[in-house]
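Two quick folds needed for the group meeting slides. Do the first one here.
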Amino acid sequence: MKKCFLILSVLLLPLTMAAGSADGSEKKAGQAIKEELKSHVKVYGFIRNFFAYDTRESASGTGNLFYYLPFDKELDSDGNDLNATPSFRFLSITSRVGFDVLGYRIGNMDVTAKVETDFYAGLNGSTGTATLRLRQAYLKLGWKDLPMGGDKAAVSLLMGQAWHPMAADQPDVLGLATGAPFNPFNRSPQVLMDASLGRHFTLSAGLVYQMQYVSTGPDGATADYMKYGILPEAYAAVSFRAGGFLAKAGASLLSIKPYRVYEDVLEDGSAGVHKASGRMTTVSPYVYLQYTKGSFALKAKTVYGGAADYLNLVGGYGVTAMNNGNFEYAATRTSSSWISLSAGKKVKAVLMAGYLRNLGADSDFMDNGLRYWFFSKDGGDFKNLAQAVRLAPSVSWNIGKFTLGLEYEFDTVQYGSHRNADGSVMADRQEITPGEYAYRHWVTNHRILLVTRFNF
């Protein structure tokens, strides 16, 4: 913590000295820095421990704490399911520290900033050494009380790494994944403008770039598809707020370039390398509703995601045609929805329910789906996922700055044996060839999560 204050002190020293010169102050630099920190910097964070027990092998993020979905069956030579194996882990790597910079004003413009980090990096499964990683780092410019007819308007401009605007509204759960993959989960570099028009309406628009959470494709998961596609993701939304009610509707436009080159076989039998063209473009709309009154909160969201694996939603895209180096693509669609209810302060009870469904693409993929990239996590491939359900009741006790929480999470996934040409999963008993039928089956994981947290 002392090192963090020292870094901030060095950064704020020129500003402090300039201020001292302007008003003729003779305060010592050290005292001026202390006053600057006290007036404009707020330190926050927590020490958090997760104790997690699972009845089945599942896709989960670093340290197995960021939970997604249970893996499909994997049978050994004797017909036993290798993934039907329980596990337990206990880690503190999500402990967090952050700095809010507040109270600066230049003319009629407010300037704030945030830097936030935790130790959720450097692990391979449940083994390794946790290291600091960047969660958020942004500045925000704001203008208030702007004239707008007979009312007032306010505009803010955020620049830096922050929550993706489609992921910012989250269910009330104790689990680290905050509802993923039923809810988007993504923090990315962005420029986001919010314009509050009067008391009820807010318009939002932004450009988002990929960094940690990226699209997959022919070269694996990488931000290069956006880098060489030039265009960042575009986002727009409108919100309505009245009393304890909030309604929001928005959409994102993603346009990336998966193939830059491709290979084939020349007439002489040698390998040929050619420049490729073509883009994968898709729109993902969503709706969010919220009602709060006192300690009660009701929240709900539904997303119609296209190629939204970069948002940690189940989905993907594939090649539908290729002519003279021009690739055509189609995105699979996934309906992802959730609802959460919470009540209480000192003792808080929560219930979250989620449902998602793989709807397939608008066109068939070529090459029997070989050029088809889909949501995959922790070594698991979810191309054959048809639908999934989650129920997560929890209770937490808040005693001052200390919280003790207990959550039970029920996740069940329906997998299929075969896929249709558009990426959707074949229906149960759908005929493939005479006498051969596709089938579906469910797998379930039960997770018990104990959380302790001390805020500072």
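Then this one, please, same format:
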Amino acid sequence: MFCRNCNSKIENTFIDLGHSPPSNAYLTTEDLQKKELYFPLKIGVCKKCWLVQTKDFIKADELFTKDYAYLSSASKSWLEHCKNFVNYSIKKFNLQSSSFVIEVAANDGYLLQYYKSKNIKCLGIEPTQYAADLAKSKGIEIISEFCNLETAKRISNQKGKADLVIGNNVYAHVPDIKDFTLSLKELIKENGIISLEFPHLMRLIQKIQFDTIYHEHFSYLSLTTVNLIFEEADLKIFDVQELVTHGGSLRILASTKNSFHEKNPSVEKMLNDEKSFGITNLTIYENFQEQANKVKNNLIKLLVDLKNKNKKVMAYGAAAKGNTLLNYAGIKKDLISYVFDKAESKQGKYMPGSHIPILDPKEIFNKNPDYLLILPWNISKEIIESLNELRETGTKFIICIPEINII
């Protein structure tokens, strides 16, 4: 395999999670009678540009289908994060009613709804039909396509260029990262701004977040690598901010190379922090498999012990990261009987691979679990607070990354 950024040969493996179905390919009752497709989930690291990436991957249009089930509005804390960003961006970039904002991967309108409420013209690009229809129902204009350079040129010709282009947690999802970067450049005005948020590879390694690795993520990103990609596209990153979202993310602000935006010291500081951590040294990648195996084995041991004690163990949050964890550990419904999730698009279906039934959280009190494994650990605080009544009846919560923690 050759690096999708610099075309160098990839010879070093970061982690091998075996074979699993796509993490968002939730199953219907009818699907359970059919053969389920499994694909390799093996991640390599490029020694030249340090892009961490899938070694074997499926085409994007086979993953992000019209019934793709992920909806950004499912998390209250995420919505609050987005509302705060909208207020910040309006003030920071002096956005007005005459301004134009484009979001790539607009999902169900979770972010653009706040710009719309401020009477700022906005446009979303969203290829998954279910999410796009929800965004349209909120009165948001949506182009239901994947964003690439060809699409971006057509949009900028027809709609004009944007003052601000936003991409939240989409940069890792694009197979052709160079073309996608050029599409962002095409969409902005001469002094326009690109805002990208993505999970930070350095935090993934530090906190052993191997469950955030799944087929829908083609790349795992450091500022070091993203900065190289942007420079090749004649773009400059002028600010970087650390975020707590998704277990530790970066928000980068970028513009065309000759724009008037001056570079903030935060960029050089983060590049130095990554270098000190070892992002450009193979050593940091070589023991990650062993750390992930330790997390997996400790979870299996706990679940088997609880099973032998006749404890009822269930899970909360049918998240993609949960499916990576369950499938890598080989956990089935004999150890976890149900998963509860607020998304109606997932309820009544089954987790891919493990085939654990997904129920409406309203059923949780009827099932009365002794233990509840929180799969989307990044919003565990929000989940535990929402289930405080359950906690008062004696249910204990399990978080297993970066280590087992029973609350």
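Slide caption for protein two: Residues 288-308 form the longest helix (21 residues).
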